[in-house]
Prior knowledge:
The protein is mainly β and 427 residues long. Helix content is 5%, strand content 44%. The protein has a ten-stranded parallel β-sheet with strand order 1-2-5-8-11-14-17-20-23-26. A nine-stranded parallel β-sheet has the order 3-6-9-12-15-18-21-24-27, with no helix packed on it.
Amino acid sequence: MLFLLLVSTLTLALNIQPVKSEPRTITVPDDYPTIQEAINNANEGDTVFVRNGTYYEHLNVNKTIELLGENRNATIIDGSSTGTVVLLRRDNITIQNFTIRNSGSAGVDSGIWVYHSVNNSKIVGNLVTNCCWAIRAENGAFNSTICDNIAERSYCGILLLVASNCRISSNILSRNNFCGVCLIDAAESNVSDNYISENGYLLSGYGIYVERGPINITNFVDRNSFIDNRQQAYCKPAPPEWGVLKVIWDNGYPSGGNYWSDYAALDLYSSPYQNVTGSDGIGDTPYIIDSSNRDNYPLMKPYPWARHDVGITSVTASKTIVGLGYNTSINIMIFNYGNHTENINITIYANTTIIGEINNIELTGRNFTIATFTWNTAGFAKGKYTIWAYATPVPDETDTADNTCIDGIVTIWTRRGGGSGRNALLL
Length: 427
């Protein structure tokens, strides 16, 4: 019996499992006066919640934690213009809702630096400003998510350097000295839904800069809005022996590619080959970056399109010269960028005179129609008239720049009595 009791006791002792502590939330400055002290005293899986205030710190985040600010605009980590402000050195870290500012200005100094071979970082909803590299992921960083941030007034907004399978989406990347996004040996990563504007003006830079090393790599860049960058996009040529640098600039038809503010083509056709009459919100010709890179389906408006948004894509008169009292047909092509059915009212003008209206045009979302109006020129003086049309904004429409479309000149003439031929025109 004694032997059995000893064996039973020993078995129970061997089966005792350590008690795992439940994740907890540590609050700064309630529990610890500084963010770094809170991190040092956190356990794996804890949340460090930081109340509003300005914290002059350089953070070394070396545990798997969630680092959450109370309010992006009022919870500030300031690096005092030295070094890197926030260094992520462990897998599965989340940093969210901070203003991070004033890193050093040279080398690897960054607002947020995802350090070597760190995986599954989530950088969400932050404002990063006045840094060298605003957000930087490098040297084996895998599966980083960088979403809904503002990265501005830095050398570069977001850098992926030898990083793979990362997602950069829904960020605002503006007024950075060199570029909005920089991809150097980045592989199988997605850059999508970002607003990339006014970058590169101090250093003759770019909206997006792509460079590669001696490996075959592919990246995907689509549904971004490239607006007024010094140069919208640049892919640095590599030696042929380095293999193929492949950037896919569109997601095919009808999803489309990117919006480019310097794209000047029209949207008169649709279909994968852009050879069927009718607007589809996609430009009729590719946007050319260089001889090896093109966006085959450039978007006509910044992405994402609004839920309620209509535009006139063309106004075309059937005749450019018409005899006084005769008719000319005017075709107005309309596209509904939104995803709701709209009732659209169109007003047609010759110079400043209203010559007609077409009301209650029903048009489903992501679709086009052509409305036709016949203009009888009786009662107009001979001369030249600019023909244009205006679509009354639909409810909740905010982008009305393309609600007006101008065709060109229609000339009204009369015949000289008794004359014939070209010399008989009286203009």
